[in-house]
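Course assignment 3, question 2. Fill in each field.
Student: A.L.
Task: Predict the tertiary structure for the chain below.
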Amino acid sequence: MSRWVCCSLLLLVLLMMMCEVQAQEENRVIFLPGTFQNVSVSQNETVQAVVSRIPSEVAFLTLQFHTQHRNATLSYTRMPGVGLSLTAVDSGLLSALQPDQTSLSLFLFSPDGETVAGTGVILPYSSTDPVPGACNIEFNLDIDPNVYLHYNLYETTIRFAPANLGYERGQTPPACDTSTGSSTRWRLQYDVYQYFLPESDLSERSLFSGIQAMADIQGLTANGKRVMTLSSADMSMVVFNSIPGQGVIFSVIVRDPVLNTSASYVPVHTYACSFASTMDSCQTLGKISTKIFFTIAGLAGLFVCFCGHRFFKCELFCMGFSFAAFFFFVLITRTTELNYDIRLAVSAMIGVVGGVLLVMSWWRFGSVMACVVVVGLMLGFLIAATVLFTPLGDLDVFRHSDVVFWVTFCSIMIIVPLFFVRWPREGNITTCGVVGGYAVILAINAYIYTSLSYISLNILKRFLNNNFSEAFTDVPFQTIDYAMITVWVVLGVCGIVLQLYRERSRPFFPPSPYLMWLQERERRKTNVLDPSHHFPPLPNRLLARARQLTKRMEPAGEHTPLLL
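Answer field:
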């Protein structure tokens, strides 16, 4: 009986092994060098990536696999292990070939127990091409061609391992750090590239199209934007500005200037937000409190743009509110750990106080010039932020020195109000048009992403983050951004022209209510012929009116036309 049991168990094991082999055969994916292949890895499944008929001139291959937001494991062996596999959204492995090797197999897994769909490609390189990540001493893989990415609210940082010189199949790789001569890997240079996906497009198809456009050297140079070039002596790390909700692909090309050859690292992408978050994911980016705040600000900005100078007190309140709310938000963010919604609410309350104080200062003291200077600082702030939002802000002198940046910013901000001393009304109306139009753009940004919001956000991030100065602040400029520039220009020009035309025959600024009251009171005291001089005091008038209301009406008797 036991013999039959043993035979049955052996037969069952053989059947399971045959089923496993059959399943592995069914899950083989054949890759052609340079051709992208869409792959789906099911739960508890192993996909074998196979490339065959490798030409003899190919010295090494890189296999890269990309998903949108789910991790995938890429491994040299069927059983993933430390130093033999990598789990990431954008993963890649480099395989150095042996002299007679004509085929290669690597393995794909789903580490989180759910189906993962992605796209992959195998890229061949010759013995004269540099080997990306071959001098790695920081990451787990021996040869690591990957670009590692980390982001937070303010900045996105990419890092990569240094490359080495190419070598023939079967030969010993050149030493990495024995010397720094021109015959070593220290002659290599690294070009960092950036590619923006279409704005407000979180689709998988858009990402895969971008990955295919940036996977190899030809695609990188044709479609990407070269941000900077690093030498081998530089730190292999670059910092960029985080743009939540905007898809960005980063990659690196390592070049050998002596042999005029190059190789590309594995591209990496980010949206600077989480697809898995239930409260503030990439699909629902933007808090309700932010939308409410900027919607109200946009409506106020539209009013100021066209009617700000006519309703001078409303304009002063809006400018004082903006000035106080912005700087108090910076203050409490740097000094407290309060929740974002609480910080925004407290900043709005302080903004109300700031607006009321600016209005009351004009009401009490009547100094129009002092108030207009504050208004001019708002325009100066926006102009300075716009100037440094351009590629001028990415110059090394601004990125490497906070002092130079802030001196330049403050100089531009202070120069603008000086023109208001000579042309106060025109300057005030210009501020209403420009600042009011930009407030409308910020309100639109709360619902539809536009890069123009980073004119002010970059300054805010620099206030809040001490290390933000090292980040590249480049942002995408696409169709929606040009449309928003048109809206801003049209609003600003129409608001300025309309107010200049409407106010051409009116006094430059309305008089102070408090000063008018003082003058009127003095006039009533000195001018006895003025009927208002004989008015009883307000308490007596109120008392007389109350007596009239409570007095019983006497019958009027007969009325004749003559008496009437």
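Instructor remarks: The mean pLDDT is 84. The first strand starts at residue 28 and ends at 30.
Grade: pending
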